[in-house]
Structure formats: C-alpha cells, structure tokens
Amino acid sequence: AQSVAQPEDQVNVAEGNPLTVKCTYSVSGNPYLFWYVQYPNRGLQFLLKYITGDNLVKGSYGFEAEFNKSQTSFHLKKPSALVSDSALYFCAVRERINNRLAFGKGNQVVVIP
Amino acid sequence: EAQVTQNPRYLITVTGKKLTVTCSQNMNHEYMSWYRQDPGLGLRQIYYSMNVEVTDKGDVPEGYKVSRKEKRNFPLILESPSPNQTSLYFCASSPAGSYEQYFGPGTRLTVT
Q: What pLDDT, in 10s, does the model give residues A57-110?
C-alpha cells in the first residue's frame, strides 16, 4: 500500500526566506503526487500535483514542487515565504492502479515576521 | 458557488447512538471520499466512491458505513459510535479524470 512520510513536525522560517517542506513516498509503480494546505478551522485546499511530464511542478500562491523519482521525494518549495503562508501542509500520494489516496501526517509551517 | 458541504459541522453524541454526517457537492463530481483527521496521524481515508452505487474501503473503514445513491450525496454513517471515533471528518470530491480533490469544511465529532 502507498504511504507518505513528512519527517518534520514543524518548519520555522523567517519571512522573505526560502521555504521547503519535505515529503517522501512509497508506492508500487509511478505515483500521482499532491500537496494540500490547511488553514486554521478550514478544509484542505489543493496547491499542486504531479501526474506526468516535467519534474518541476508549479502551483498556487507561488509554490512549486520537484518530483525526484530516484529519491522518491516530492518536496514543496517557495522562494520567499510570507507570514500568510503559515498553515498546515499535507503531502499525498495515489497509486495509478487504485483510487486510494494516502496523506502524510502534515507539517506545520510557521513564518516569522 | 461550487462547493462541498457537510452537516453538521459540530456534533457531540454518546456511545452507541447511531448518527449520520451528510456530504453534498454541487459540481457533478464522480469521485467522493471521506477522511478522518487526527493529531499526529494526518488524514486517513475511510471510504471512497467512484460513482453512484460504487463504493470501496479506504484505510480505516471499521465502524463506518457509506452509501452513494445519488451523485451529489455521500453520507457517512456511524451505526454504533465509540469514543475512538472522536475526530475531525472531511468529505471531498473530484471529477473523473482529474486528481485534485475539493474538500468540505469538516465535521468535528465527539463521542462520549
């Protein structure tokens, strides 16, 4: 079964600095990969996805992620963090042979003014 | 407005009292799913449905039931709730052939 690891519970970054949120995955075959963001007391919002094609995927709010097949990683990045980026970020993976979606435990991002 | 709605948003109940959490989407999506979110565990998939009358188990289906009689609705049923089902529940939907999901606002359930 597919699984996702988000090794850091919390990521602290100063406003204006680069932000990276790490994600590694385990699947059979080629994956579908996703990042979602959750603001306090809200549902999850889709940020970006990798299905096929370019390994660098660009998404909403200036976020991007790089698919690295050899390292089975899909790290989320933003060149310059904003205080409003403070939220809970989830990585998710779906195997192509089934329709089940596995989420990581989430990373709390705190952007310090 | 395109959205996924859940009701109720908050529910406190007692062990063994059957309850239903409703989920409805107005986007004509084929795929719908239920998740529970627990601290330190992230989101775990309970059940999903590829279309009307087609449902399948996710990772944590025990103690839950679902039905998909209409395309827009995907209720989550707890026949005999227990305290370990205290959690934050999310419903989500997506169109066939697309892979990103649209989430509802969540239902916070407490079972005492």
A: 999 999 999 999 999 999 999 999 999 999 999 999 988 777 788 999 999 999
Chain A CB contacts of B4 below 8 Å: 43
Distance CA B57, CA A17 (A): 42
Chain segment A23-67, per-residue pLDDT in tens:
999 988 888 999 999 998 888 999 999 998 899 999 999 999 999
Bridge partners of residue A25, in order along the sequence: A4
- Residue among B43, B59, B105 whose CB faces A90 most closely: B43
Q: Which residues of A touch B105 (CB under 8 A)?
A: 42-43
- Amino acid identity for residue B70 in this structure: E
